[in-house]
Amino acid sequence: MRLCIVPLLLACIGLAEPYKILMYTNLFGHSHIKMLGAVSDTLTDAGHDVTVLMPVIDFKQEDKTAMKSTKKIIKVPPGQDTSTTIAAMDKFMTQMWTSDNSNPLFMAFHAPAMSAIFASQCRKVLEDKELLERLKAENFDLAITEPFDTCAYELFDAIKIRAHVAVLACSRLDHVSSTIGQPIAPSYVPGTQSTYGEKMTIGQKFMNILHFVMGDFLFGYIGDEDYKVAKELIPGVRSWREVLPEASYIFTNHIPLMDFPAPTFDKIIPIGGISVKTQRKSLQLPEKWDKILGLRKKNVLISFGSNARSIDMPVEFKKSILKVAELLPEVTFIW
């Protein structure tokens, strides 16, 4: 009987061992950085050995990793052309307030500029043979990335990590749905770049299809440009279009009850709210903010995300918000 217990105990020890995990997350777009940072810290806090590879695309985000407990971070400095292309991207971002976002061609028009940014940084990562050998020698059990930029999939294939999962900072991405075979249903599911709801006229449904097609084209174009760089540097490497569908799971940042109803399947798992800290110690406000929020009975936080920056907002838009604030003296507006 005792001889049977020993192998069982050894098996339990094996199951209790932490996994070695490689997280690939670009420093680009704070909401994306925060989501992947939350996943990294969650895994680290659970006892796993997490290494984060962070190619620096936007140098303004370099010190904003959004991670606290994860300490093993490898940063790849910007590529030779990245600084130039990101400056051009900044100019594009200033147009977010005045551009016609309902036009499905809006994002597609900027596909070459966006792809140049990611392809430049992809080259910087994949041409570092010493880094690739170092990562390969780690023998990671699992890799994680967000397929917003797909260079990670060529990296995973190059260093022979077969088990990987995807994490989305949103509910869905058109090119991911297309690549993994997720049903689209554009007659009632708004595309990622769409401005419509779940109830659409015939004309709006047609436009929604175009939004999906253009969204798929935009990120697919970025991914294909990454792959051109990858196969130039690493002969025989597989494309993201082949590697991404092999993801064991697709974790999405959405709460189904608060989202548009949409077709899905079992390997798509919602983890909405993972980046929100709910521990008691995290709910205690610093003294500064406690005083500000205590000035009036009601408070309103104004934020438009990391893409539509308030600093780029037209003056007339800002004046409109200020006029609304003047009409509500009992409310503290935080902008």
Automatic annotation (TrEMBL):
<keyword id="KW-0328">Glycosyltransferase</keyword>
<keyword id="KW-0808">Transferase</keyword>
<protein>
    <recommendedName>
        <fullName>glucuronosyltransferase</fullName>
        <ecNumber>2.4.1.17</ecNumber>
    </recommendedName>
</protein>
<dbReference type="InterPro" id="IPR050271">
    <property type="entry name" value="UDP-glycosyltransferase"/>
</dbReference>
<dbReference type="InterPro" id="IPR002213">
    <property type="entry name" value="UDP_glucos_trans"/>
</dbReference>
<dbReference type="GO" id="GO:0015020">
    <property type="term" value="F:glucuronosyltransferase activity"/>
</dbReference>
<comment type="similarity">
    <text>Belongs to the UDP-glycosyltransferase family.</text>
</comment>
<dbReference type="Pfam" id="PF00201">
    <property type="entry name" value="UDPGT"/>
</dbReference>
<keyword id="KW-0732">Signal</keyword>
<feature type="signal peptide">
    <location>
        <begin position="1"/>
        <end position="18"/>
    </location>
</feature>
